[in-house]
Amino acid sequence: MPKIAEQARAARRDQIIAAALACFARAGYHATTMADVAAQAGVSKGTPYLYFESKEALFIALLEEWDCGLADRVNAAIAGLPEAGRRSPRQVLHAVAAAVAGHVLEETETCRVLMEARALAAHEPAIAAAVRNADTRAHQQLEGLFAAGIEAEEWPAGTDPALAARLFTAGLYGLMAQWHLAPGSFSWQTAAAALAEGLTAVPQSAAFVLDGDGRPSPSPPRSP
User: Fold this and answer.
1) What b/e readout covers 47-81, taking b as 16+ CB neighbours within 10 angstroms?
2) What is the DSSP letter of 217?
3) pLDDT tens digits for the chain (224 residues)?
4) Contact (CB, 8 A) for 128 and 122
5) What is the helix (H) or strand (E) element at residue 208, kind and residue range?
6) Exposed e or buried b for every residue in 99-135, given b needs 16+ CB within 10 A?
7) Phi, psi for 218 (deg, rounded to 5)
8) Residues 155/201, Cβ–Cβ less than 8 Å
9) Quick check: pTM over 0.85?
10) Are 137 and 172 in contact (CB under 8 A)?
11) What is the distance between the alpha carbons of residues 168 and 155, in angstroms, rounded to a whole number?
12) Cα–Cα dist 197/16, whole Å
């Protein structure tokens, strides 16, 4: 395929994904049709199917490929730290939190779709897989950051990196949910900074056993 044709196809694909983002953010996944996406993109009804076999495939592509520069924003925030800051996992975590805050404020449509994806994951297996894959990548990177911070004594030795990573991402998604329900009701920058600063000591996860009623309880201490 000639290079110009490849570039034109890539540009049209991006155009369709951008249109899908607008449609999903405005009406939600279930109410949006491929015809809506085509109309938003200004193309014929059949054109989206030349790039995506279904609405679900289009939605997943949006989740996986079109983050509106979040990764670039995070990398730029870290690169903007002084050298000593880049060597400090704690300062890097603050930079990540600040980058996410800026992303939510500037890319509200994207974040709204990301929040819906988590709700859809309960009933849509393919979307659930995409969400899990994204979570796994984020948790692995954050776990490495927390582990480095423990080694550098920026977090206590008893901190659980995996739990700290989950608490950090859960806190961010919780803030996103509250923001989209009540935009402007709090300062994202302040909240994100407080979240990063609050993860000063996350203890090792306790082992749990199930009680007779099926509820988890901390396991009893082992006999010496």
Assistant:
1) bbbebbeebbebbbbbbeebbeebeebbeebeeee
2) E
3) 567 688 999 999 999 999 999 999 999 999 999 999 999 999 999 999 999 999 999 999 998 876 657 888 899 999 999 999 999 999 999 999 999 999 989 888 888 898 899 999 999 999 999 999 989 989 999 999 999 999 999 999 999 999 999 999 999 999 999 998 898 899 999 999 999 988 654 555 544 444 444 444 555 544 44
4) yes
5) strand 208-210
6) bbbbbbeebeebbbbbbbbeebbeebeebeebbeebb
7) -55, 140
8) yes
9) no
10) no
11) 14
12) 40
Joined tokens for residue 3: 């290079």
Show the tokens assigned to 44.
């014929």
The pLDDT of residue 198? 81
**From CA 25, how far away is CA 19, in angstroms rounded?**
10
CA proximity to 163, closest of 195, 206, 126, 122: 206
Which two structure tokens, joined as six digits, stand for 162? 């995996």
User: Residue 193 is encoded by which pair of tokens?
Assistant: 């900074």
Sequence-ordered list of residues with C-beta below 8 angstroms from that of 202, at least 6 positions apart, any chain: 155, 159, 160, 163, 164, 167
The amino acid sitting at 90 is R
- Which domains are present in the chain? 3-62 (1.10.10.60), 67-200 (1.10.357.10)
Token match 């990573």: residue? Answer: 165
pLDDT at residue 221 in the model: 47
